[in-house]
Amino acid sequence: MDEGDFMDIKSILESKEYDFLRSNSLLKGRILFLTVGGSYAYGTNILGSDLDIRGVVLERETDSLGLTDFEQYVDTKTDTVIYSLKKFLKLARECNPNIIEMLYAKPEHYFYVSPVGKKLLENRDLFLTKRAAYSFGGYANAQLNRLENALARDTIPHYDTMVHINRSVINAAKSFETKYKLPPDAIKTYVGAWQAGDKEEILVDFRIESYPLAKLRGMIEEMTNVLRDYNNTVSHRNHKKDDIHLNKHMMHLIRLYLMCNEILDDKTVHTYRKEHDLLMDIRNGKYREEDGRIKDEFYQLLASLSTKCEDLKKETTLPDKIDDNKFNDLVLMLYKEARK
Q1: Which residues pair with 203 in a beta bridge?
Q2: Are residues 266 and 304 in contact, defined by beta-carbon separation less than 8 angstroms?
């Protein structure tokens, strides 16, 4: 986004369509900062890209201390999402990718910043921890699931389709050992026939004893969600839109790994990516064959970034999790300053 685009967006935010930013009782005089999300934030926007405005607002005292509850304001007409400070901090604590992207936008991509918003942005490095490997990695796995589901066309033999889906299940399960404190090799999924004469399907072996039922349920839900997402994909197929969406899934998959690796390696991150040309090549279909298949070069790039991510998980000097004392001090400081 060049200076002209920035000025255009500022003028758009001052238009009648965005009057809710200045008139809504939940937002008026309470906004801490406004920025841009999505393709404009990454630098991958094209003609017709949606303008996604993102921000943070100081919730009312009744929302923080009383019985009312306000987490975010959503204006669907303009694709605007404004998080309450309370929810924003909770998500930032978990190194949520959408939130980290807001904290590390280009300086000129902040259209409004209050004094309290400035202090929040100044303390953004506090939220970068090893959790990024699992939060950004989890988002990347979700993109990979969508990518592999989209590849499982009706023309692919049933067995090969099951192999595609199982690969997505395996990717979804990569975080289980840490997330659910699962013993190594406790879950194995593979493709086979359950009984003689049955079609191949995804089978699972569990090798665990005395394990909490609630955690087991969580894992099963995550794996079965992959099947559900695949079924939704194939039942609502539009091939032209599929190609466009597939390219976007490919682009976001690479972008997420690039951002994750930058966090783990450099202990900072840039939402606006220097790899603009690479990402746009992916979005524009240069990593697809004429028959729609994904080129080997893409999978080689993906494997390289994934391997680097695994290495950086072991090498990074980032803390395992956020410093609770520093986090609490920041929360108290922000609310005290905001309530003055």
Answers
A1: 190
A2: no
Read off the tokens for 207: 């090798």
Three-state secondary structure call for residue 314:
helix
Name the one residue in this structure whose structure tokens are 């390289």. Answer: 304
**Rounded to an integer, what distance in angstroms lies between the CA atom of residue 190 and that of residue 197?**
17
Contact 256, 42 (CB under 8 A): no
SS3 71: coil
For residues 144 and 112, the model is more confident at: 112
Using CA atoms, how far residue 149 sits from 73, 100, 140, 145, in Å, is: 32, 27, 14, 6
pTM above 0.70, yes or no: yes
pLDDT in tens, 292-320: 778 889 989 999 999 999 999 999 999 99
Task: Give the DSSP letter string of 234-251.
Answer: HHT--HHHHHHHHHHHHH
- In the chain, the domains with their CATH numbers are 3-128+320-339 (3.30.460), 132-315 (no CATH)
